[in-house]
Amino acid sequence: MKRSKxxxxxxxxxxxxxxxxxxxxxxxxxxxxxxxxxxxxxxRYGGMDASxxxxxxxxxxxxxRLKRMYANLAIKLExxxxxxxxKL
Length: 88
Hints:
single chain, 88 residues, mainly alpha, 0% strand, elongated
């Protein structure tokens, strides 16, 4: 998964600017983001403050790490099963 150039505090700040009345075009031009990225952030993180965003980012990173660990263990298990079957 591609890492964001923006920290959770920056994302929260950008979303607050929109709530204060700035247009999406102004925000996207000013911060160098696409409109699609802005709307995705708004859909995902709308109404959250910076500390909540940080916690969600940490949980997403931990979830990705755990998924990779599970995939590696599943591969090792399949390999072990294959080797055992061949020896019997």
